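During the no-cost extension, the postdoctoral fellow (Dr. R.K.) reprocessed legacy sequence entries with the updated structure-token encoder. One reprocessed record is reproduced below for audit purposes.
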Amino acid sequence: MVNLILVSKENKHILENMYQFYNYDFSEFTQEDINRQGLYDVDLEYFWQDPRWNPFFINHDGKVIGFLVVLFENDDIAPDPTHVIYDFMILKKYRRNGLGKEAAIKAFNLYNGNWKVAQMALNEPAKQFWRNIIKEYTNDSYTEIYRHDLKKYIQTFCSKN
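Re-encoded structure tokens follow.
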């Protein structure tokens, strides 16, 4: 069973460490390089300065196995913000066994509302992962567009009952 645990500011260093793995995984798509200290540049301070950002650890059997970040897009100007899966990572050893799917569904169930999930066009595994989950979760009631300017596929749906 997977649990989502809101990341406290006291545990932000753990999340910052995990972003090193996340950026490493994505470097094949982003072409991002490490800095002179051998690390990816990570600054997550805004997660705790702006209430629209909601970082969660993904826990399984008492271990942190990943993280996800939900952004309340336009929360500052709209009474009903769109919820965005902004970042999502499962450590490789825990992938392909349903734990990522379970975490995604738990995230969708946290907030009844409009949702948006985006993937880089080159990231085939992420596109398949999200399309499969969203198709099942929504009973194939979602839309997908390709944004040429962003080079991303974006799925939108509503989880309101």
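The chain has a mean pLDDT of 95. The radius of gyration is 16 Å. The remaining legacy entries will be reprocessed before the final report is submitted.
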